[in-house]
From TrEMBL:
Protein name: glucose-6-phosphatase
Pfam families for this protein: PAP2
This protein's pathway: Carbohydrate biosynthesis; gluconeogenesis
EC assignment: 3.1.3.9
Length: 154
């Protein structure tokens, strides 16, 4: 497990150091996908626009959170920012310094990440809804075009 955590810390350090320029963008994407927005924003909004997508959104929130809770009970994983303080693998107080953000300062088990699971579900529902809307719109457009061309005998 230490091997996994150690490599996780290396990846976090790499992202925090080399992708600092993308901080605003990544933080924005993370906040947009925040599962708590489902109840306050996405579900009411989508339910007005499209009931199927709205219902899908609420099911994703409920089932995703439930699975996350079960997996957290089973895995009971350490969070990187406390693991680096507790592990003995870094000699003489040489533990790496990891930057923390409001969403990472949680006190419960960290694995699997509820934020990552929830955000990917939110993004999946929104992207598939947007894609099917676009494809549907293009299909209607091509049918209209076809009829129009057929009516003119082209
Ligand atoms: O399990 P993680 O990754 O710390 O994420 C949990 C948190 O993720 C956030 O996105 C949710 O808004 C919080 O409600 C939740 O507690």
């Amino acid at each position: 497990m230490d091997f996994l955590h150690r490599n996780g810390v290396l990846i976090i350090q790499h992202l925090q150091k080399d992708y600092r320029a993308y901080y605003t963008f990544l933080n924005f994407m993370s906040n947009v996908g925040d599962p708590r927005n489902i109840f306050f924003i996405y579900f009411p909004l989508w339910f007005q626009l499209n009931q199927t997508v709205g219902t899908k959104m609420i099911w994703v929130a409920v089932i995703g959170d439930w699975f996350n809770l079960i997996f957290k009970w089973i895995l009971f994983g350490d969070r990187p920012y406390w693991w680096v303080q507790e592990t003995q693998i870094y000699p003489n107080h040489s533990s790496p310094c990891l930057e923390q953000f409001p969403t990472t300062c949680e006190t419960g088990p960290g694995s699997p990440s509820g934020h990552a699971m929830g955000s990917s579900c939110v993004w999946y529902v929104m992207v598939t809804a947007a894609l099917s809307h676009t494809v549907c719109g293009m299909d209607k457009f091509s049918i209209t075009l076809h009829r129009h061309a057929g009516g003119r005998g082209l």
